[in-house]
Amino acid sequence: DTAVSQTPKYLVTQMGNDKSIKCEQNLGHDTMYWYKQDSKKFLKIMFSYNNKELIINETVPNRFSPKSPDKAHLNLHINSLELGDSAVYFCASSQVAGINQPQHFGDGTRLSIL
Amino acid sequence: QQQVKQSPQSLIVQKGGISIINCAYENTAFDYFPWYQQFPGKGPALLIAIRPDVSEKKEGRFTISFNKSAKQFSLHIMDSQPGDSATYFCAAHTSNTGKLIFGQGTTLQVKP
Fold first, then answer.
1. What is the signed CA dihedral for B55, B72, A40, A65, rounded to 10 degrees?
2. Does B87 touch chain A (CB under 8 A)?
3. A47-78: per-residue pLDDT in tens?
């Protein structure tokens, strides 16, 4: 049983399109995150939700919109995709926000913009 | 002040040797320091973590050394194995923001 699962694993699309990435965790955690890993492998947090409420919103273009229908799911919708959006996007979850809890990561979605 | 600086960027070690990766930080509000291991095509996975009130933590072949006054911490991998070949990230967390700030990563290659 995969703890944090993301779909799709690969996403290849044209510039200007809109796409979504889905994330689900079965760990019973309250907090979920989206990270972006660039071509140099640098990992940076984008968003965090605690029990469906947005708690971290880094300096991310408003073309990126996270949505949490329930605490087990956190989806990422990206409008008007640009070349610079090409990266690996990771979803993660932790038991509680703001306390030293380990974050569990999915295996990532590799987004390639043509 | 939110940065975590990690070195070296890449490391090659012979099987059985010791791998050492170093990290430094500025923000004294950081209160939790995990290390993550990432294999190609996979997400980062927690390896070992330490709180700043502890100077050393050991789990199997992996040890974190923490120097609070110098604001530095390091990961030591004893008896390095080819299966340890991966990218390692140090990170720092603040409870007041809930953010996990990652270092730049170290690609470790252990030669047989």
1. 80
2. yes
3. 999 888 888 888 789 999 999 999 999 999 99
